[in-house]
Amino acid sequence: MASRDHYDEGQLQEKKDEKLKAPDMYRVVLHNDDYTTQEFVVEVLVKVFHKSVVDATRIMLSVHRNGIGQVGVFTYDIAATKVRQVHQMAREREFPLKCTIEKA
Q1: DSSP class of 43
Q2: Cα(39)–Cα(100) distance, rounded to whole angstroms?
Q3: Residue 83 lies inside a defined structural domain of this protein
């Protein structure tokens, strides 16, 4: 029979109310450059970020006009994975597209 030394008969143990903290969020940002084509940026937004062509075009034009633009907000692991995917696609197509993460 198991020892019950740490329990007093008839007493209930209190269960601590644990508060779960939401994970920190990070925004993924695209940077404009003079070499990456607008068509390629739209393709990246559709394939990596699952944007519709209309939304991807709107985001691409915003990046083009403003020099920088937010693509989405994700947990760190997802944001980092998406940045790696963007950079891999850009390298394969020989574009210098820059994509970064910043804390939201």
Answers
A1: H
A2: 20
A3: yes
